[in-house]
Backbone:
């Protein structure tokens, strides 16, 4: 008979893998989805559909994680995890079967994606807690190593899978045609159904529950609404506003950011005063927990934007410069990302196994240091790089992610009392997911602002060299310079941005149709890439430098986390300390007691 802990590990790894793959699979495969639905994402009215299909999944999961984790502590982690798997699988089926096309079809996909994200939040929030319950402290690093491969590695696999599926033609099954875009959502249907049945059949409650506690409605409301406003505000900051290439000056965006920050501030005040808080902020006084979650947030803030930047770099610039058509760039962009996932798959399990024996501090610090070095190396690369050099950097970056992820997750979960593991797991996942969402907005803004600043100096000369008449060059150049967001998203969506721009300016006053030879020159795949290459190179280098700085800060925090600390047990290399006496679940418990006696250490006295 298989030991129960391996059942937990295998099922939570499957759930995490599915939820993570679905979080990124649309990044590369969106062109196929929009073509299949018959929706033009470049029309102004449809741009919000693009943004919500791209980022809505992450917004919902980040918002719900802490709430779900807290409810799981109260009502049972296995029960809530199983429920999440069922919701996720049901939404996957609805995404695959969705019958509409056009704008209605896109809106239906967004709605079902948000429901799928609700289910994913239950999977994300409970996996680490279930593993911590099932595995002894001396094996948690190994278990977290495998599980973290699913969560972080799944996001990389999603990119590759999306690119591969995007290159598959529609399947003709007798009189029926199965569109390619449906295959994207079909991936998770059979595996999700099997995983759901398996979870309900095999997983059981072994956690310490706190059913006598009350739901913190005020805390849940202020946290959920505040984080939603903050993430939605940053998402809409990517949309052009007026004459600006971004929307950060929009009153709505500013109001959402200020309102979100105010509600999160109110959340902190509420949590410090209620008897049964949604999340015990005193856990941040535990050095291992505070350092681990802070480093994870900074790492995610740096890493989340990396995915989008690399996809844009490969699809919009490098591949077209090397003669690839925009239609085939999604597939090849996924393939070119593979060294990163190989590095992660190699280092993740090994670092988890080593952290059980040597502790998390050295491994997580080295991992983040490698990550910082890889960002700085990418910043030094030319836009038209030699691929093997970038492949080596991506492999090193994947190794760094793997070395950090599992030891850090194990350290965080080891440092909290059993009755708070669901909320702690939710907080860790929230910080990682929110960091990724904020990262996408931050780095895309850096690239767009830098690109807009440089295009004015490169576009006129490029159009003149292509033989575009001066009057037409002024009209077309203005269209390119005024909308770098649309141009980059065009390349990102597998469309030639110049074709879209020519269609846009063809009805402009004073426009003269170009000659066939000039049109062919302008529409060549490498033309747009050569136009934006100088500005893109400068802006993406700045983005990678920022990412390197954030990752370097995470490495410093990891180095300062102290010696291994396991709640109620001895850590590797540490002196044995008896477990503190149990206290009623609604009381402050040993956490507040030890804070008073150790000067803010939190939990039992840290083993230094």
Residues:
């Amino acid at each position: 008979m298989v030991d129960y802990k391996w059942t937990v590990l295998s099922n939570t790894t499957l759930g995490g893998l599915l939820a993570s793959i679905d979080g990124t699979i649309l990044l590369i495969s969106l062109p196929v989805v929009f073509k299949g639905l018959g929706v033009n994402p470049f029309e102004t009215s449809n741009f919000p559909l693009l943004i919500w299909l791209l980022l809505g999944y992450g917004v919902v999961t980040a918002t719900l994680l802490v709430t779900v984790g807290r409810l799981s502590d109260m009502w049972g982690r296995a029960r809530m995890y199983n429920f999440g798997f069922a919701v996720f699988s049901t939404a996957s089926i609805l995404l695959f079967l969705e019958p509409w096309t056009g704008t209605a079809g896109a809106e239906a996909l967004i709605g079902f994606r948000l429901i799928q994200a609700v289910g994913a939040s239950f999977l994300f929030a409970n996996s680490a807690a279930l593993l911590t319950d099932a595995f002894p402290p001396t094996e948690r690093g190994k278990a977290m190593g495998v599980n973290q491969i699913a969560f972080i590695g799944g996001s990389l696999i999603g990119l590759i899978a999306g690119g591969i599926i995007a290159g598959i033609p529609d399947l003709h099954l007798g009189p029926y045609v199965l569109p390619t875009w449906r295959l994207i959502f079909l991936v998770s249907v059979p595996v999700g159904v099997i995983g759901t049945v398996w979870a309900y059949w095999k997983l059981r409650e072994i956690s310490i529950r706190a059913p006598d506690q009350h739901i913190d409605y005020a805390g849940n409301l202020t946290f959920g609404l505040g984080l939603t406003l903050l993430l939605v505000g940053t998402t809409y900051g990517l949309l052009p506003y007026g004459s600006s290439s971004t929307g950060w000056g929009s009153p709505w965006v500013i109001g959402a950011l200020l309102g979100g920050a105010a509600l999160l501030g109110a959340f902190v005040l509420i949590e410090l005063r209620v008897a049964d808080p949604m999340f015990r902020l005193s856990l941040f006084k535990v050095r291992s927990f505070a350092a681990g979650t802070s480093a994870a947030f900074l790492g995610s803030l740096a890493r989340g934007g990396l995915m989008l930047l690399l996809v844009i770099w490969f699809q919009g610039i490098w591949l077209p410069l090397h003669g690839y058509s925009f239609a085939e760039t999604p597939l090849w962009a996924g393939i070119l990302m593979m060294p990163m996932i190989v590095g992660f798959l190699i280092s993740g399990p090994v670092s988890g196994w080593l952290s059980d024996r040597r502790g998390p501090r050295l491994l997580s610090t080295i991992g983040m240091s490698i990550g910082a070095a890889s960002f700085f190396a990418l910043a030094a690369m030319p836009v038209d790089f030699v691929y093997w050099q970038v492949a080596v950097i991506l492999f090193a970056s994947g190794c760094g992610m793997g070395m950090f992820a599992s030891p850090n997750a194990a350290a965080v979960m080891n440092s909290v009392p059993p009755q708070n593991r669901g909320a702690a797991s939710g907080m860790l996942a929230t910080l990682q997911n929110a960091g990724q969402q904020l990262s996408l907005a931050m780095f895309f803004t850096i690239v767009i602002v830098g690109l807009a600043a440089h295009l004015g100096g490169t576009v006129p000369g490029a159009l003149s060299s292509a033989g575009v008449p001066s009057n037409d060059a002024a009209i077309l150049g203005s269209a390119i310079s005024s909308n770098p967001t649309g141009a980059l998203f065009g390349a990102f969506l597998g469309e030639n941005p110049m074709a879209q721009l020519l269609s846009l300016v063809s009805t402009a006053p004073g426009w003269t149709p170009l000659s066939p030879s000039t049109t062919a020159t302008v529409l060549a795949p490498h033309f747009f890439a050569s136009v934006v290459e100088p500005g893109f190179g400068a802006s993406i280098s700045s983005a990678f430098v920022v990412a390197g700085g954030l990752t370097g800060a995470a490495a410093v925090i990891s180095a300062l986390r102290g010696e291994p600390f396991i709640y109620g047990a001895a850590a590797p290399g540490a002196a044995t300390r008896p477990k503190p006496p149990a206290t009623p679940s609604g009381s402050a418990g040993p956490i507040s007691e030890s804070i008073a006696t150790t000067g803010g250490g939190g939990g039992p006295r840290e083993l230094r």
The CA atoms of residues 7 and 202 lie 7 Å apart. Strands lie at 171-173, 176-178. Residues 216-275 form one domain.
